[in-house]
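Chapter summary example.
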Amino acid sequence: MQISVIGTGYVGLVTAVLMAELGHRVYGVDIDEKKLAKLKKGRSPIYEPGLEKLLVKNLDRNRLSFSSSYEKAIPSSDVIFVCVGTPPLPDGSYDPKFVFSALESVAKNLKKYAVVVIKSTVPPSIGPSLKKIMDKNTSVSYDLASVPEFLREGSAVRDAFHPDRIVIGASSDKAKTILLKVHEKLPGERIIGDMLSAQLVKYAANAFLATKISFINSLAILADKIGADIDTVVDGFGSDHRIGKSFLQAGLGYGGSCFPKDTHALISYSDSLGYDFSFLKQVDRINDKQIDYFVVKIKNMLGSLKNKTIAILGLAFKAETDDMREARSILLINKLYKLGAKLRVFDPVAMANAKAILKSKQLYFAKNEYDCAKQADVLCLVTEWPQFKKLDFGKIKKHMKKAIIVDGRNFLPKEKLKKMGFSYEGIGRR
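The structure predicted for these 430 residues follows.
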């Protein structure tokens, strides 16, 4: 099929590459000419393992091309995926202006029937507004549909090709049949329904995962208070097949482009319907407090933080991505900075993005992990990059002023570090 993907951010670019790899002919459409110039040369503007290789492969096979022209891409398209951003408004709800603008441009350039698929995360009740924009700008027949994405940054390519499920929401059998055909080469359960339900699935998935994270962080604090070990606790109750161990890793809380935004949006959406989603509000409050809890742990190890040198390992919101959106490192650095600490920071991939965000702070951006640890009073693990677990900790110890590690992800080899003479503190770890 001929497919257009509107927006080439994380979701759009992965979707475009996925569809091309499945054998479809794909146009990636974006208004950012600098980004398009990179993409046309086979250079991914985002760090995502495996993505650039597939990008180059499908450009070379002429299955994938990029343009800023709706006039060029839309008329021949059978399916159009809308993957533009929905930034948060002050009340936590989504700003749909980019979705509205994209739909208007799509509608004006339709020349034949197409299925217009909303992949952008939008509130479920937005459907009538989308239909109004389409009907105002085209007389060509079309169907609106929703196929939410469940990609995890850092493993987005793997998730795209090996989904647990494909959720399709549409009102017509014709649209459902076409979308099943588009995705037929992919594994995963097919869940077919209406647009409202499909869009609510996206909210539900991210809000529930955020809930698991806040729950385990609350339990880890309890474990700290009584001297229990959260790793043992997770093994004990997470082994129940009804619960599972995924997203039960105690740490600094959730960040990134999805969990905070989608949680706030679901709270705001519920408020707009007259329902107080107080349970989810508490999930969000717990997450907000987790950085403060971590700072207290550092203070307990050092006393006053004024003029103390603190090394921060990991800046991206999670490993295997350069994304700094809602990264917990930003909140932590801001709090430590206000307490008078001197900060040395390092991330294997996200340094450029971090410098752009944290440029107002007097931080030392280290060359590597060992440079980061030089003369540090404490080393704080913030992002669980696999390479951090394999460091020469003897060398790290020699570089540090004091052999103290506070592990914000319960990721580092606790027993090994203690045997080496480090004072080690995790989150709920005995």
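To summarize the output: The longest strand covers residues 165-170.
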